[in-house]
Amino acid sequence: MKYYVKRNLAEPAYEYRVIPGLYVSEDMGRGLKDDAYYSRFESVLEVEKKLGERAKLGYDISFDGENFVFDVFEGMDRTADQKLIKPVIFSVERGTLSSFQKADETGHEKTAFYCTRAGAEFEDEAYTQTYYFEEQTAGLARKEKHLDISITTEGDQYAEFEELSRKNMEEYKPTQSFSCDITRESYSYLADYEVGDYVTIKDSLTGVTADRQIISVTTQTGDTAVSYSAEFGDTRITRMDIFRQSLGG
User: What is the pLDDT of residue 132?
Assistant: First the structure.
């Protein structure tokens, strides 16, 4: 995440793209190891959103008195079921939201993946495996996709091939996203919640009760007030995330 900001905004090869006063904090190695994400002609904001979702990290730009500092951080589990810290529950009925929208994005999903190792000189020499999310699908439910996978290390290349294949497959899962407007009287941004945190969303009208990760927060400054709107990704908190937080990770 820091690499993209540094190479495109803070220290780009083309000097006219430099954002004056923008500084990227020290790399602490908190992203995915050997993440093979590749981007062309996408905005830096869109790339940061995707990388943050993949690595389960949030990001922010703060002012330290001299520079604007870009940094990433691990999201906290603030869902209703955890007992370690104050939970954050976004709900119109509770008065913590002024509006709530739900969107199902299903046009891009695939269910069967033919993954081929990139770089083979001849087509019949290419190593190919077929993977599925959970179980094999058939008939009209089967939606196929071919993926080229590049191996980057000299270790267990078969294990790396499967790991990278499954990372790329995640982009083709059917997703369900939420967005909302947060009331100022409920929770304080950066004090009670941040981008990357996991919170609980409840909406009786749509029947949604879900634990989701905040993937973006938009601040809108008016003449008399400041308001916030948030977007939530399809990423769910896992048992491993909860275990890491209980250990202080």
Answer: 86
